[in-house]
Amino acid sequence: MYSPFNHSENLSDQKMSLKLFSQLADKSHLYWAQKYHDLIADETDSNDNNNNNLNTTSDYDYDSSGDTDGDEDEEDNGCESQSFIDKISKLHSEGRDVNLTKNVKHINETFAVLNNVKTLLSNLFVFNEREKYKAIEFLSEIDFKISSQCMTSLVKVFKSIRNTEFWAIKMLDAMGSFPPSGFAEGVLADFGEYDECLDVKSPVDDKETQIRGQYCMMKVILPYPKLDNISDDNNLDEEIKLNDKFKAYDIDLQKLTLRTIVETLNIVSGTIYRMGICIPNTCTSTEIEDVINKLFEPITKLPVEIDKPSCVVRDAPVVLDSFEKFAITIFSLSILFVITSTFAEVYTNYNRSTIPQTKDDLIDTNKEQLLTSFSLIRNTSALFADTNGNWQALDTIRLLLIVYVFIAHLYIAATTLGLVTLKSLLTVVIPRMFVDKRYWFARNPLMVDALYSLSGFLISYGLLRKLDKTNGRFNYFQFIVQQWLRFTILGFSSLLFFYLFRFTGEGPFWYYAVQYNDGCKNPSQLFRILTFLNNFYEFRIETFHETCNLPLWFLSALMQFLIISPAFILLYWRRPNLGKQVLIGALIVTNIAAVLPYFILGVKPYLQILIHGAKLLSANANDSINWYHTYPNVQIHSYFIGIATGFIMKKGISMSVNQVRLCWIGSIIGIISVYVWQASFWGPGLTEPVISALLWHTLGKFIFAISFSWILFAICSGRGYYLNMILSWSGFRPLARLSFGIYLLHFLVIGHRIFDIKYTHVSNDRTMWRYIVIDLMCNVIIAYIFYILIEAPLSNIFRVIYDRKPVVVSNDKKQQFESSLANNNNPKVKDLNTYINVSKLTISVNGNVNKMSELSKL
Questions:
Q1: Adjacent-strand bridge partners of 68
Q2: Are 403 and 395 in contact (CB under 8 A)?
């Protein structure tokens, strides 16, 4: 009831306001009542003095409220009351006759120019008393939900900006802008200056709290209808013809409809723009969001949101959760074990004879093996150790497949998850990633099928050889427990890196990376990883951030295949003919299983799911990703083809040179044709035919798996000599043995590439391949750390527990021993039988089981 008196421009009303608020006994309201009273009183006295001194009457007539029909202050206050254009015009006329020069006689003239700029800005953006009063009146009518501490800080920032204090100007300068540069070519964000904002500190004042910069990410929301409200509205399916407007960008928008626009807005929750803002650390994101929305939403009709996790203050206290503490503890213990084990190996080798004299000098006991299982020397040497046969080429093939997967994931993630960080969206990789033929390599999932075929081949051939050695004795329970322990320990160990991931980067978008890793702390996700059911997690875009280390779904499917595969392999070893028939039946059933979701559940195979991103919100599209990508029904036939290849490899077949050549030609044609077939589904305006897509998932993948399995068979059976020679190059050896860690941890590196960034950037083919090379090197380094701390020690310990062969030896010791035998200068070797007994020892060289050279070769 008192406010109308307080807001009046009539002096008598202001006197009443002062009287009323004095009776109210509220210091805050009384302060502003006194302020407004003095302001109106000063203006009234000024007008009266002007009229008396000039002995004239005003050209403006006052109405009953005391206001004027015009801007009476413009004549009174000179430049301060002029319009912006008037000020510019006056300053321009004053400086028109000044000689322009870039050189001056003295540094004082340089500072004079700078001072002129400062004065210019002050004159252009100064507010006169009436404008100040209007602003106060406008703001006082808005009910801001803001603390007194935050309000005090905001007022101090505004005053400091007006007084050109540098710390406050830096806070303003750190803000993002709209529109940003490059907006016409597609920019979805302006991050501003992240580090500049965090470095802001106001001068220390004993009376006031120091203000520090707080960086937050603000999202501008375009109000949008929910999909449930428009599902039956057929008018939304009408195409929007925008091709003429986008000819300069060479983009085909013939499939753009109102429905796709609505679906896309639902995917991004209406967010059309992100902007970095710098606010005082005494304010919360909720308070600033409330202020901005109440100030601007009534004008723009565009609400804004500020993600609380996005707000960062420099040197904020770090709080560790239980998962992070656990990860730090495990890594600390592992490093301690590595140091201790390395010293143990050095000590053991030092106390041995310089040249081994007997076979006992070559042998390490199980105790010694266990002591050196974490040794940096032993495990690093194992990376470079040579292996016999053609199997080294298979390690290189696995490495190349994983590198391929890494490249594809980097392309896809950079153009989907990292879309906000990119500039020139309409002119570079983004609009062409899912339509241009040259990006076929990043859109094809066949490399995962190749990894399953390779796994099936290795487990089949390896288990058949073991059955030959043990005469058919096989402990199924021990086999499953051993594989479960190995995969579980390695899988959970990879999560330790993700638990500490948030401490390895920073930036405006970094909180998204942290959010995507929170899924690794979800009990339900951890249970799925422990039980190897992670690949049955139902994909939903709205819960995508709840996933945990996506490569673990491959381990889950592989473990499921390992559980069932021994039955087929044992049956084949004991009854080969029946085993062949059962395996053929399994291949037929698994091929049909790949397309059963369509015939039973009506789920279509969307191969272009990333082109039609809006489809991700539909249940059918989510089910399509699950049934045709992550669930095991779509990969198991590739695994069984690998098992069949292992059967053929174990049995051995004779082939003529022409037959081998035909198989090679057929294999190459098969792989290329399946790739071309899949690429034909992608393109502007294309919709994958259902029948063709179903055939690709059955016949196409079958042809690819057969073609790829031939390459494996040919290399291991000596029918791919030149290819085997290339793939067996020693330079591939250490990288190939790190490939498992590269695969498990490659999303850490991709996450850094996407989210650890402080400015929007342009992504084209050159930058992408530069990123690939750099990120692969980083991935190898992280994989080496994983190998030294976790993978190699685990393998060594398992070897001691399950193999129980106390026969570890170093390469140099073995070579010294063989040399002494060859030169016949070993006094302890008295006859041929002693040498034969030693040479027949099965020894483990740096973690790899080998046979010593046969006597006949010497």
A1: 62
A2: no
Mutual angle of helices 476-499 and 552-574, in 10-degree steps: 170
Alpha-carbon span 296 to 415, nearest angstrom = 32
Q: Which residues contact 35 (CB under 8 A, 6 or more apart)?
A: none
The counts of H helices and E strands in the chain are 37, 10
Cα–Cα separations (whole angstroms), residue 841 to 599, 802, 830, 837: 58, 18, 18, 7
- What residues pair up with 845 in beta bridges, in sequence order? 809, 848
**pLDDT tens per residue across span 594-639:** 999 999 988 888 765 544 444 555 556 778 888 888 889 988 999 9
Q: How far is Cα 756 from Cα 852, in angstroms, rounded to an integer?
A: 50
The rounded distance, in Å, linking the Cα atoms of 697 and 597 is: 12
* In contact, 806 and 452? CB cutoff 8 Å: no
Residue 139 has pLDDT above 90, yes or no: no
DSSP 8-state class, residue 204:
P
CA angle at residue 266 from 265 to 272, to 5 degrees?
30
* Residues 253-281: b if buried by 16+ CB within 10 A, e if exposed: beebbebbebbbbbebebbebbbbbbbbb
Q: Cβ atoms within 10 A of the Cβ of 81, count?
A: 19
Q: How far apart are CA 377 and CA 820, in angstroms?
A: 25
Exposure on the CB side of residue 285, measured as CA atoms within 13 A:
18
Q: How far is CA 311 from CA 306, 308, 511, in A?
A: 8, 6, 9
Residue 388's CB is within 10 A of a number of other CB atoms, namely 10
Rounded to whole angstroms, the Cα distance separating 19 from 25 reads 10
The CA distance from 23 to 436, in Å, is 76
Phi-psi region of 608 (alpha: psi -120 to 50; beta: other; left: phi over 0): alpha
Angle at 227 between CA 222 and CA 232, to 5 degrees: 130
Q: Which of 715, 184, 79, 702 is nearest to 426 (CA)?
A: 184
Q: Are 287 and 298 in contact (CB under 8 A)?
A: no
Peptide bond into 684 cis (omega under 30): no
* Residues 240/253, Cβ–Cβ less than 8 Å: yes
Closest alpha carbon to 846 in 811, 815, 820, 814: 811
CB atoms within 10 A of CB 347: 11
Nearest to 604 by CA among 617, 621, 629: 621
Phi, psi angle pair for 178, to nearest 5°: -140, 130
CA distance 714 to 105: 83
Report the SS3 class of residue 783: helix
- Judge whether 410 and 750 are in contact, CB under 8 Å: yes
Can you give the pTM of this predicted structure? 0.79
Other residues' Cβ atoms within 10 Å of the Cβ of residue 210 = 13
Cα 553 from Cα 525, distance rounded (Å): 11
Question: Beta strands 842-845 and 848-851: pairing type?
Answer: antiparallel
Q: Do β-strands 312-313 and 213-221 pair in parallel, antiparallel, or remain unpaired?
A: antiparallel
Distance separating alpha carbons of residues 304 and 288, to the nearest angstrom: 10
Locate tokens 């044992």: which residue?
570
Q: What is the pLDDT of residues 817-838, one digit of tens each?
A: 555 555 555 444 444 444 444 4
- List pLDDT tens digits, range 346-386: 988 877 655 554 555 545 567 778 888 999 999 999 999 87
Show the tokens assigned to 657.
């040179």
Helix axes 476-499, 765-786, angle to 10 degrees: 120
Residue 62's DSSP bridge partners are 68
Strand partners, 842: 851
Q: What is the CA radius of gyration of the chain?
A: 37
For the segment 753-793, what is each residue's pLDDT rounded down to a tens digit? 999 988 888 888 888 899 999 999 999 999 999 999 999 99
Strands 213-221 and 304-306, by their bridges, are antiparallel
760: nearest Cα among 509, 411, 452: 509
Q: Give the residue among 530, 562, 592 at the shortest CA–CA distance from 452.
A: 562
